[in-house]
Amino acid sequence: MHRTLPARLVTIAALLAGGLAIAQPAAPPVPRSPEGKAYRAQPLVRDIFVADPSAHVFGGKLYVYPSHDVDAGIPDDDLGNQYAMHDYRVLSMDRVGGPVTVHPVAIDVKDIPWASKQTWAPDAAYRNGTYYLYIPARDKAGVFRIGVATSKSPIGPFKAEPTPIRGAYSIDPAVFTDDDGTSYLMFGGIWGGQLQRWKNGRYDPKGGDTDLRQDDKPALAPKIAPLRADMKQLARPPRDVVILDEAGKPILGGDHDRRFFEAAWMFKRAGKYYFTYSTGDTHFLAYAVGDSPMGPFRYTGHILSPVQGWTTHHSIVQFQNRWWLFYHDTQLSNRNHLRSTKMTELFFNPDGTIQPINPFLD
C-alpha cells in the first residue's frame, strides 16, 4: 500500500539528494580564563570547592583526598586566614574521565579532640586493613599540628586520635611508602604554615610571619621522618629534606623559583625518588630527584607553570599504567580561597626528567 511522505520528510530528502548538509548544533564555547587563555583541564567536580588534591589508588580505584574550601567571609592575607576549611570530603572514580563521586563528610574539625580550626591539605595511607588520614589543623592555642585519623573504609568516616603526632608540626603532611613497606611522613609550609617558627624543633610565636630574612642562607627545609609500624607516630625525630642545586650546594632562601615553600609530595619511578613541592609565592610546582627517600635531592626542574589563583598544591600518582598530575585552580570562582581540583596526564623523558606542563593550552 502506497503512503505519501509528510512534507517535512520530503524536504529533508530533497536537501540530502541535492548534496546540502543539514546544520549541526554549534560546539560549546571553550572555557577561558579572565585573560582569555583556554584551560588545559576542567574541574573534577563542580558542586563543591576542593583543593590540595592528594590522590591514591586503593583496590584498583582512584581516591582523592582534598581540602574542602568554604567561604567564611574572611579577607585574603599572607597568613592564609581566608582558608577556613573545617571538614574533608573524599572523591573517587573507577576510571579517568568517568563519573566522580563526592562522598559524605569523612571527618569534621569538631570531631578532632585536639583541633580548633583550619583543616588544611590532608593525605591518606593504607596498611593492614586500615586507612589513615593525616590532618593538619590549628590546635586550641592556634599552633598548626598534624594528627591522624583511622577508618576501615577509604572514604571514612574517620576517627581521630586524641592527640597530635609527637614531633610533627606545621602543615601539608604527605606519606610515602617505599617498596620495603617503610612509610615516611613529610610535612612543612612557610608563611601561614608556621614552619619558620620551628627552627629549633620548638614553637616560637615570634619566629616570623612572612619575612624569613634568609635570602643568602640555605632555604628553610621541609621535614621527613619514618613512621612507626602503627602509622600513628614517628619512628625517629624528623630531619631536613635537603634540596641541592646543580653544584651540590643547598638551594638558597632567595631563590624563590626553586626553593621549597609548601606541598611536599614524593613518588618513586625507575629506582629514583622524586621529591616534588610548591614554590609558593612564585607559583611553580618543582621537583628534585634522589637515591633515597631521606635525600639529599638534586633540584631538576619545574613540573607545572603558575595556575589561575594564588596557591599551587598537587599530587602525582600512577593509575591504570599512566601517570597523572592532580592540581587545583580558581576557574569556577576566580577567588583564591575557593578552588577546584583538576587532573592531567604527566609524561617523562627517556632520562627520567618530567615534561613541564602549562595549565593553559595557549
Walk me through what this model shows:
- By secondary structure, this protein is mainly beta.
- The chain has one helix at residues 7-17; strands at residues 49-58, 61-69, 87-93, 101-108, 115-117, 123-127, 130-139, 144-151, 159-160, 174-177, 183-187, 223-226, 239-240, 243-244, 262-269, 272-278, 285-290, 297-304, 315-319, 322-329, 340-346.
- It has a single domain, classed as Glycosyl hydrolase domain, family 43 (Tachylectin-2, Chain A, 5 Propeller).
- The chain is built from one helix and 21 strands.
- Strand 1 and strand 2 (61-69) form a beta hairpin.
- The chain starts with 6 loop residues before the first helix and ends in a 16-residue tail after the last strand.
Question: What is the helix fraction of residues, given as a range?
Answer: under 10%
CATH superfamily: Glycosyl hydrolase domain, family 43
Tally of DSSP β-strands: 21
* Percent of residues in β-strands: 35-45%
CATH topology: Tachylectin-2, Chain A
Task: Please describe the biggest sheet, giving its number of strands, its sense, and whether it closes into a barrel.
Answer: 5 strands, antiparallel
What low-confidence regions span 5 or more consecutive residues with pLDDT below 50? 1-17
Our count of helices gives: 1
CATH class designation: Mainly Beta
What spatial form do the alpha-carbon principal axes imply?
A: globular
Number of domains: 1
- What is the ordering of alpha helices and beta strands? HEEEEEEEEEEEEEEEEEEEEE
Terminal Cα separation, in Å? 61 Å
Kindly provide the radius of gyration, computed on alpha-carbon positions and rounded to a whole number of angstroms: 23 Å
The CATH architecture category equals 5 Propeller
Q: Write down the overall mean pLDDT.
A: 92
